Records
---
Amino acid sequence: MAVFSRIYIEKEALAYPLAQAVLTRLPQARRVLIDHYKDVFNRPHQDFRTQKGAQQLILALKRPPYLYPLSPLCETYGYERAYYTTPVLNCPYDCDFCFLQGVYPSAHLVIFVNEGDFFGAARNETGPFFLSVTYENDLMALEGLAPWTSRWLDFAKEMPHMEMEIRTRSANAGVLRDREPLPNAVLAWSLSPQTAAARYEKRAPAPADRIEAARRALAAGWRVRLCIEPIVRIPRWEEAYRDLIVSVFDTLPPEKVDSAVADVFRMGRQGFDSIFKSRMDTDLFAFRPGSAGDSVTYPEYREMGHSVREMLLRYLPPGNVYGGIR
């Protein structure tokens, strides 16, 4: 469980059961009452990198809207209506390539506690739709602190027309214990070669541990998606990704894997330029950027993406492999 020395709590959020559940788990943290989370989260002159080293927690109420259309850059798996939602802002991990560092002024973790409002918004969708609940967070990594993953899985039972994706770098498959698998919930593990993970995915569990968590979920009957992204240009990258995919399917039966997606590292130009100026501690951004639409990426992104997707196609049928910069 993450360690926080201070918890900022919106006064209106204090009475919510989810807020009380979080506070019970952190009895030693200093509590500071605030009027609105943005008074802390959006303060001027914050330093994202410094705050990552001493991340604090904010408990707040989310105001409308609760669902957002997914970016055209995101995979929607064939759904015409595809959304994401933000029960949590930011992540306990510290990956160099995280786009949130170019989006948010603060690295502090925000947990929204008014779960009923999120579920109410999703209930308004009456036709088939796709919902990512982890676009700006890693809920499974935080389950020991705030049981948002469990709450979304409970909610998905009453929404058969919703396909929900929970993406994670966590090795925490314990959240699935004693749960019946759901046909409309997809558990998606983000995977990288060990050399890339050690270099760029600080605080995240080792890829081998994530693969084992995926194996346990698969054995229990859950739908499992493999996310080989972002593909980053490390030395001998092609060999590294081939070794990763071989190791994955040495552990996971290909015929049971729901799907896979592979995409090359890319970022909106504004976010890339902002992060580039502040990240002297990583070589991830030290390349001559190419362009793909409104994104910044490697000049050879097509070759890299095609190569990794071809590796996946050795194990999975074409209709189950997604990705490609559009």
---
Amino acid sequence: MLQYPQIDPVAISLGPLNVHWYGLMYLVGLGGGWWLATRRARRPGAVMNEQQVGDLVFWVALGVILGGRLGYVLFYNFDQFLQQPLSLFAVWEGGMAFHGGLIGVILAMLLFARKQGLRFFQVADFVAPLVPIGLGAGRIGNFINGELWGRATDLPWAMQFPGAGEVYRHPSQLYQFALEGVVLFALLWWFSSRPRPLMAVSGLFLAGYGSFRILVEFVREPDAHLGYLAFDWLTMGQLLSLPMVVAGVGLMIWGYRYYGNDLSAATAGAKVAKPTGKRSTGKNS
């Protein structure tokens, strides 16, 4: 068995202000995604330039925060929301949901694409390989906080988590970091390194994340106030991830069937602004 590293969730204390590692992980995800997005924008035939990337990052960050919080309240804590509707704004209590964040990002990309004169899936295919950076960073934040732990096990790498009793458990946050962060990033970065049909990269992201999330949920402890939804194994995470797999496979089939012989469709119709010579700097479930 392994010893859980007792890491102070507060990274920096400046008088009454406490900066938590979990919050810093969001900055790592957004900053890493921004850096890689600017690299992608420099590729020949990129659908947007570095200035547009800066605008896109703002929209995506807004979608992640608003959608993630709203999704957590509606998907995982709806009873409390009915009793206390203002709990939706109690962000200091924690609580973010990936599936809500995904919906928020989709809406943000729709608005951005419309504003920039781009197709939605041009933007989505551009963004998809960057998302695992934020996913992986978020799971490290969960691990540092000692939350969202796994089910009981006697495997050699099991750990005792604070607040989880004396039971040794799967470090499921690290499983998700490895699969949703490292493996999914490598897969998408490799897949998108060559021209692909429109929708294919987005489809692979949805199918890949959904599959990995469903697998990890088999060893992750379900939320105490929800438990198993059915069959003594079906969790909310699996229920929300299954449509992602179906949609992802459908998008890949659609993309290859209708755009497979026209790889230029991924950039067709793009209205990319001319470079200005200035570079832009600019508890989840």
